[in-house]
Design goal:
The longest helix is centred in the C-terminal third of the chain and has 35 residues. Helix content is about 80%, strand content about 0%. It has about 280 residues and is mainly alpha-helical.
Length: about 280
Amino acid sequence: MREFFVKKSILPGFSLSLGFTIFYLSLFVLIPLSMIFLKTSTLTFQQFIQVITAERTLAAYRLSFGTAFVSAGINAVFGLIVAWVLVRYTFPGKRIVDAMVDFPLALPTAVAGIALTELYVPTGWLGQYLQMAGIKGAFSPVGITIALTFIGLPFVVRTVQPVLEDLDPQIEEAAASLGANRWQTVTMVILPVIFPALLTGVTLAFARAIGEYGSVIFIAGNMPMKTEIAPLLIMTKLEQYDYPGATAIAVGMLLISFVLLAAANFFQWLTSKNLGKV
């Protein structure tokens, strides 16, 4: 029976490794998440629904998930372009450009938030030009989207880049020799191969954007019903010692995020499965 469920491996130590894995995940993932649900359980079901459907909470949800979705879509396009340039072309300063991709991961989020705010305020280097065009860069949903795009770019680039490196350029040459134009080569040959990786990177960027706090609070303006993100609302509840209310909002975010990420992963699995049949 044990041999039916466990595939034999040449390397020993499966039981010890599995036990350590379960212990580690339980200690740092399952137990902390379960405490959120336990604290929320002190509320009645009616109180829980009242908290997560409050007008201020719904506005924070819409802003957080909406800007996260938009920023993930932007990174899907430009992250793919950046990865393509880094893999397919050789140019002076390529190593510097490649290192710059990781800057959003290396910078403290507060530093990134302050830098973006100074850049996009109405008197900032870029904010003044946006102001001329009638666009409010900082202290608006636009500013939040900019911050989330900034912190999400590395996830897309670093996920797609290895797949592009493994993609043999001769495949593109073969498609061209068979009469495919450049657009057909990209959409029918290259994109289907890298799409699962691209979707994975976009999913990671989206997940990071939903919970981002440090780089957003500076550029958001934090105005209730307008530029208040859900993580900030949770912090506000905590400062008011409303711990059940804070955990209720967190549970709502967790459930919505789980559904969206599960759907994205299912779509990724379905795409990979269909590609395997080709």
